[in-house]
Structure formats: C-alpha cells, structure tokens
UniProtKB/TrEMBL annotation:
This is Alpha/beta hydrolase. The lineage of its organism: Bacteria, Bacillati, Actinomycetota, Actinomycetes, Micrococcales. SUPFAM superfamilies: alpha/beta-Hydrolases.
Amino acid sequence: MTSYVWARADSADAPVAVLLPGVNYSVQAPLLYWCATILAERGWHVQAVEWTVDDEARAHPLPFVERAVADAFDSCPPSSRRLIVAKSFGTYALPWARRAGIAGVWLTPLLSEEPVCLAVREATTADLAIGGELDAFWRPDNVAGTEAQLLSVPGAGHGLTRQGDWQGSLELQSSVLKRIESHLDGT
C-alpha cells in the first residue's frame, strides 16, 4: 500500500484529509474523487491511499487499514484539523479514528462488522455515515444511539447507485456529495 498527495494546501496549518478506498473502489472512483475535489477546493491537503486487498488483508482487515491510515497521516503536514473519508473496506479505519480523535465521512460503512459498529456507536456529530437502503452492509439499527449523523439513501445499493439507472445514480450521488459538502461546512 502507498499514499500520495492528491492536493497540496497553500496554508501552513491547512486541514488535512486522508482518503481510503474500498476493495474494488479506488480513490479515482466517483464518490471519493469528488470528495477529494471538494476538499481541495476548500484548501485542504488531501492524501490518497492506494492498496491491493489480498487474502491476508481480508483475513485481518483492521491492522491492514489502520497501518494504511496511520502511514498516510504520517506523510501529511501537521494540522490541528484532520479528517478521514473512507469507502466500504476503508471504514475499518473507524476504530483507529476513534482512538485518534479524528472525524470522518464514512461512505457505505460495514455496519455488519462489530468493530466498525462499535466505533460508529462511539462516534460524534462530527462524523457522517452514509449508506444505501438496499446495501446489505448498511445496518443502521446496529448503531442505535450513535451521535454520528446517519444518512440512508433510498433505493441505493453498496455503490450508492441505483441499478440500471445511470441518470438516477448520477443525481443520487450529486445529492450525497452536496450533503457531504454541507457537513464539511458545518464542522
């Protein structure tokens, strides 16, 4: 695994964001690409992670993802404001984020996995978790009582798209990105 600078900020104490992909969802895929663009346009330093999820990573996802996110932040300039934007498999970073006190935008978090659920239950209003109603991994009942902001997207699956409806999917993702933008402006 490796990370690279997606966008370099001009300010010395600019906020820093790390993007974590999914298994088959790179940082070049639509949701992460546009999140990176939104952050860059707001003056954030954006660090993007690339990885190959092999059998060992699948068998032990927490240490794999935690090492990736820690290494990515170590490669970033220091900042008093840090954020993680993660998709699916990348949301295994949630326990690490809780320990580090870093908020996140958690796209299709794996709410079927107990370590992820526990971390979301402990999350704050600075965290935003978004999942599709039709996604088998999106189980908001598993995180009842969380302070995190949860957004269930009607008619969407794990890719936050609508099957067989590219135009509807594009509109849906546009509304999701506007919600993320609004969240960033409020935190």
